[in-house]
Design goal:
This protein has about 150 residues and is mostly helical. The protein has four helices and no strands. Helix 1 runs antiparallel to helix 2. It starts with a helix and ends with a helix.
């Protein structure tokens, strides 16, 4: 049973990393290269869509790693799982304090109501997101290493 928990947790966190990496280095770059208001409209839509899904994915990943840490306590790799859980917790805290407030504003914007500094706010979100992706990659690497 522990083996299944380890694999499910690692796959779910790995998929989370993949989505967030894609947002940072693929999707937002594509959107930003589109003409006119397309970038802002795409980011607003993405904020609404992913903003509804990601809280469950982040909290679910954190809960699964906590269960793995408890169930596997005393076995090899438990410290790495605890470290991964700590990094996932950090990513949740970063999200709540830094990224979600910007996202909540941005997902309501249209070309008619967006603030003049909307690009600066999106750039700030991007910078925070790059750091969050690095934290998530470290968490995932810790989980993968704990499997060995």
């Amino acid at each position: 049973m522990l083996d299944a928990l380890e694999i499910v947790t690692t796959v779910i966190v790995g998929l989370l990393v993949g989505v967030e990496f894609s947002v940072a280095f693929v999707i937002n770059r594509i959107l930003d290269a589109l003409p006119g208001d397309s970038a802002q409209l795409g980011r607003s839509h993405g904020g609404r869509m992913l903003g509804a899904l990601m809280p469950f994915w982040y909290i679910g990943s954190l809960v699964l790693s906590a269960i793995w840490a408890v169930a596997g306590w005393g076995e090899g790799g438990a410290g790495l799982v605890v470290a991964a859980g700590g990094l996932l917790l950090l990513s949740v805290i970063m999200s709540l304090l830094l990224l979600v407030p910007i996202n909540n504003r941005g997902k309501t914007w249209t070309p008619e109501n967006r603030p003049e500094d909307w690009k600066e706010q999106m750039n700030r979100w991007d910078r925070y997101h790059y750091v969050r992706v690095a934290v998530l990659v470290a968490a995932f690497a810790s989980l993968v290493t704990a499997l060995a």
